Amino acid sequence: MTVMQRLLGASAVLALSAGTAAAEPALIFDLGGKFDKSFNEAAFAGAQRWAAETGDSFREIELTSEAQREQALRRFAEAGANPVIMTGFAFGSVLGEVAPDYPDTKFAIIDMVVDQPNVRSVVFNEHEGSFLVGMMAGLKTETNTVGFIGGMDIPLIRKFACGYAQGVLAANPDANVVANMTGTTPAAWNDPVKGGELTKAQISQGADIVYAAAGGTGVGVLQVAADEGIFSIGVDSNQNYLHPGSVLTSMLKRVDVAVYDALTQGTDLETGFNVMGLANYGVGVALDENNEAIVSYDMLAQVYAAADKIVSGEMMVHDYMSDDSCPALEF
Amino acid sequence: MDVMPKWADALLIPLISIAIAFVISAGVIVAIGEDPMAALNTMVTGALGSSYGWGYTLYYTTNFIFTGLAVSVAFHARMFNIGGEGQAMLGGVGVALVCLFIPFPHWSVALPVALIGGALFGAAWAAIPAYLQAKRGSHIVITTIMFNFIAGSLLVYLLVEVLKPPGAMDPATAKFAASTHLPTFQDMFSFGEKPAFRGAPANVTFFFALVSCFAVWLLIWRTRLGYAIRAYGHSEPAALYAGISPTRIIMIAMLISGGLSGMMAINTVMGEAERLVLNSVEGAGFIGIAVALMGRSHPLGVLLAALLFGFLYQGGAELSLWTNVPRELIVVIQALVILFTGALDNMVRMPLEKLFLLFRRKQPEPATTSPKPAE
Fold first, then answer.
1. Omega of the bond leading into A83 within 30 degrees of 0 (cis)
2. B23 contact residues in A (CB cutoff 8 A)
3. Which of A77, A178, A212, B295 is most buried, by CB atoms within 10 Å?
4. Do B41 and A11 touch (CB under 8 A)?
5. How many domains does chain A have?
């Protein structure tokens, strides 16, 4: 009897919560998990900022299985979640199939382009931001050798590396860029130990600044850089606070802004192709109290000048993904 | 030996084990401040409450049937095949190669060829550890688990360097041609306006899994070969004395086992993703061990245990969709079920056996002496 009552009560509560959930937006994190101190966490931060400002709530799920990609998309769409936001290029092919089935639901995908009328595709000009941090590295280096450590070896990460190398060479034509990738599988996004080992290897090759574009792996890169007394550059979120005085700067990729904007627009989400670059503050360089002592005024002046030129179109940073090649770096 | 009746061994022990696992899971859910009854309700309605839920549950079940049967067949020959994961990965390669490079006119032609492809690759991957065990005495547990890692590396190499279409970011093959797509439950069972099993990945492979259950039962209990496998499993010296070649039995049992694991790829690679992705197996090879243990290596038991784990997978997914139970906790619940049904089997069995013994002693004397007068 009592068990029955509790069961009924529980299902009533569930029905109620399902009812209120109808208009909630939803956020789907890829297999990497949401607390990676980098890409996914930036998305989570954006959603939290929106929730704190509006007092509304959002649904979220961290995937545990490939088959759940489509499942999560369909379930949220069927439950009336709108918009449905997902982080990561791996959703591309699934979203392309699911989106036409739910024409009244708006979807937003970050880091991938899906050509459907109800999808907002947000991509970033990572090469522009990487160019700026590359300039800072080129100006700061004393050994004329700087390092780059990527996560998974995909065109997107090569785009980071290529922009970075161009920036380094623009500021310091004598410099040498050492680039390594952590791996070729998604596991490379979450391997701080290997990140640390690669950092040590680059230090032994003379690098005194390393730029990590590797998700959770970057935590290990930054740690070893701090331990070994060299500079590092963080990525996606502002990671300056992780090791003040050692993290030279962070290449900000404002995934949080993309998520925040999508949530703010809500069901009126503007669909289509959305590029976030220097011009609309989608990428940038992090400056705060943690790194003001190690960034000189002269360095900043040059970086800002370059940023202005990029925004005005006077200077072009080569995008690796436009032709799968890089003039400044051999892979 | 037989202190317990058969029904208690086959049903009571797994049920008590599951009950204990659920009680402890409920405790964990309470500890993080969620309502365990609501959580259970979410899992049950999410996994079994709609045709959509069943579509996912049966999709996972299909995987676990294949890997569970694979482990069972090897078990009967006293071989502990923990290489199901790697064998299924290689099976995926076989299925993908067939689907990518042979132009099929229709799925009904593609399915048997892909089945052979998957089974051959899976069996080939099991053949090496089997040979090493049979001829060199290298322990099958060690070799098969190491072969899982080799399979993983091989798969990465194939996907990243060979099969990935140029310019793509995902380490995955191109999409298979539409003519190889298997009919899903939605295609098969949707009549009228409202589609059933909407979007669920369960497909025609499920019925093939059921056929496989029956075929394994036939093989193990109704054929000469099955008898030889069981005889070898019970006692190697006795089997040798009866003229059964251990080498032959080890090789055949492991080849069948690897082939069954490889056929799992039909469901995930050909049925669900319709392309080969890096983690298409997702631990189903290991779950197969728990399924076989729980199912007492009997096809019917495997089927039921696979259904339970399918329910846990799909229910877990629903739980993380609609509640704040973190995904790690769902793994904890699954692990508890595995722990109690597989590893801690004796914890339930021993007290239960004592209980049955106690119960039997209280019976009046004739119950135990009655067979005697027949002499």
1. yes
2. none
3. A212
4. yes
5. 2
